[in-house]
Design goal:
7 helices; 2 domains; 253 residues; CNF1/YfiH-like putative cysteine hydrolases; three-stranded mixed beta sheet; 11 strands
Length: 253
């Protein structure tokens, strides 16, 4: 919330006017002391595609992560439950912004971003700092049971991401309790997925030091007084924005 009543929505939504969103973004940058930066968002598609930028493109590019070592660009990702991840290499003065939903997480977008920073800028994973911002927590993120199989096929420690480490292939006991005919029974009970833990695990696997990964425990679905949550609010939810850039002086911010 802003000024007690006004929502600081930073995404172009159907229910909000472009002029209001543009004004909110200006106020957001001003509050960060980054008014002189060029905001560089993405057209997010729930992928593992990373875009390295030497300059701001004329139109937002499709992708879910971006990186730069050009001073003056303010990389941005928008979220409303998904995991925002910001990376900085203070030695090479390079940064990255990552949008990690369940699809991007499953496709190892965080791990791939670390590898891409090494390729593009010579970043060494132990030098990187990472911030994992507010997102939907495992308390509120219920998914289908077959997600366990999907993640287990990709990650050796996937059982740690779920509250009930099932395979998703177990028979549905409700079918026998309600006596409904085959094809009409309710789906099996879901499980709760911890996307923060999954992404932190990827960053560790990519070579980051544990002490260099900072994780917010705030849940967007629990704290709709502070954040937007698509899971709680649906189509009327706004968008949060996480940004990072390189100043023309000596520090990344």
């Amino acid at each position: 919330m802003l000024d007690g009543e006004k929502l600081l929505n930073l995404g172009f939504m159907e229910w909000d006017t472009p002029a209001n969103v543009a004004a909110n973004r200006q106020q957001f940058q001003s509050a960060l002391g980054a008014i002189d930066f060029t905001l560089t968002p993405l057209k997010q598609i729930h992928s593992a595609l990373l875009r390295p930028f030497a300059a701001t493109p004329p139109q937002p590019c499709k992708g879910d992560a971006s990186s730069t070592h050009t001073p003056g660009l303010l990389l941005a990702v928008q979220t409303a439950d998904c995991v925002p991840i910001l990376l900085v290499d203070p030695r090479k003065r390079a940064v990255a912004a990552i949008h990690a939903g369940w699809k991007g997480t499953l496709a190892r977008i965080g791990q791939k971003a670390v590898g891409r920073m090494h390729y593009e800028y010579g970043s060494k994973p132990p030098d990187l700092l990472a911030a994992i911002g507010p997102s939907v927590g495992p308390c509120c993120y219920e998914v289908a049971a077959d997600f366990v199989s999907k993640f287990t096929a990709q990650f050796a420690d996937a059982a740690d991401y779920f509250d009930e480490p099932r395979s998703g292939e177990e028979p549905n006991p409700l079918q026998w309790l309600n006596m409904m005919p085959p094809g009409h029974q309710p789906p099996p009970k879901g499980v709760h997925l911890d996307l923060r833990k999954a992404n932190r695990s990827q960053l560790l696997a990519a070579g980051l030091r544990p002490e260099n990964i900072f994780v917010s425990e705030l849940c967007t679905a629990c704290r709709t007084d502070l954040f937007f949550s698509y899971r709680r609010e649906g189509a009327l939810s706004g968008r949060l924005m996480s940004v990072i850039g390189v100043r023309k002086s000596s520090t990344a911010r």
